[in-house]
Amino acid sequence: MRKVIIAGNWKMNKETESAVSLVRELKTEVRDITDREIVVCPPFTLLGEVKKNLCDSNIFLGGQNMFWEKEGAYTGEISPLMLKDAGCKYVIIGHSERRAYFGETNESVNKKVKTAFCYDFIPIVCIGETLAQREKGEAFGVVEKQLREGLADLKVEDFSKLVVAYEPVWAIGTGKTATPLQAEEIHKFIREILESIFEGKSEEIRILYGGSIKPENISDLMSCQNIDGGLIGGASLSADNFIKIIKFI
Ligand code: PEP
Q1: Measured from the CB, is residue 167 less than 6 Å from ligand 1?
Q2: Residue 1's pLDDT is what?
């Protein structure tokens, strides 16, 4: 049985005051939830403050990105040791915005995923096609390449800890959500590819959907057999919406 993950990606949003008020409300409202893993991924500058406010809670902390080197002359980067020190358990890797604006490739994703496992993080590895790729009928091919290259040569003991997030680029921040049918079609395909890479382990790997999830569409998406949770951007910035999403039935 795969435990559902609901993860909020705040992206480059929030400063201390609004971050603290959001997580305080969240902490109180979700304190009795034990059947889902709840994660928040604030910007790096807020990790310390958010961690402080989440102590003794059932909410985990995640980074939005991470470099593969542990320390050194890499101005502007964040290392696995730093994320550990800040209290992160999860790390988002290869988000489509990182791929589109900051030159992330399947190769850099692969290095980061290996580093994440090396430092005992749970990586949330993002994949997904653009609108142009979908319209050309390339969605399945793109996703397969991202999986095969981004997840190459992992250690057997890490297979089941992996989390994949399918986030069609055309659905991120656009208000357009993949229909449950569209999402499940790709999620099922992703699990088949994962099975061919990680023989016998694909049923343990959580595959999240991301792309304009809201309180109104979470339940339908979560009713799909191969959707094991959500990576939520915009709607995770509001305590009210994020709480409703976490508490979907
Ligand atoms: C995301 O950035 O991971 C995301 C899914 O964003 P949104 O929910 O705003 O579409």
Answers
A1: yes
A2: 86
